[in-house]
Amino acid sequence: PGAMSQAVAKEIPQEQGEGGSRRSSWGLLVTAGVGGTLVALYAVATPFVTPALRKVCLPFVPATAAQIQNVLKMLENRSGSLVDIGSGDGRIVIAAAKKGFQAVGYELNPWLVWYSRYRAWRDGVHQNTKFYISDLWKVSFSRYTNVVVFGVPQMMPQLEKKLEDELESNARIIACRFPFPCWIPDHTTGEGIDTVWAYDLKRSRGYEAKSLEITPETES
């Protein structure tokens, strides 16, 4: 019996060691799997997160159906080229192309640009649309007569100056969600987050010129 007990005692650690080894192997596999998943998620999510880390961020917030209709309303009786600054998944560009515009979108997120191109092809308007991966601050918008902007309050003053310097007087700028700080809108439609403001640049420039002509009050 003593010999048998010693034999059993020797077997138990060995079995525990084998079980521990199996558990260790499974742990390594799980760790590797989780690590691989995190790396994949990081690769996919980085283009979405990176813009939000910039000094002036332009996060992706899809346009609502009401916003798209309000933008199209502001484009009635308009012609020429159109650009969507921060075009996201391309829905504004595609909707404008369906109305006959040669429409272009600029978007920093490459995943959204590729998806926009796919949507344009799927909807049969790929020949009337173009999507570029680009930082809006490094692009000149001088050749566009219709500009759509989905911005955030922090960027609107700087963008207002950029568009004022680059666009021709016949341009119309359509702002969604947030208005420009200095320009007076010529047309407004929608409510809440669906509000859209339209600015005719020649009138905005005229307003600015008149504001400079105010004569100082004289003492009586």
Give a description of the structure.
The structure is a single chain. The chain is 46% helix and 15% strand. It has a domain at 65-200: Rossmann fold (3-Layer(aba) Sandwich). It has a seven-stranded mixed beta sheet with strand order 3-2-1-4-5-7-6. The model is unreliable at 34-56 and 207-220 (pLDDT under 50). It has 220 residues and is an alpha/beta fold. The chain crosses the membrane at residues 26-45. GO terms for molecular function: protein-lysine N-methyltransferase activity. Belongs to the ANT/ATPSC lysine N-methyltransferase family. Its main location: mitochondrion. This is ATP synthase subunit C lysine N-methyltransferase.
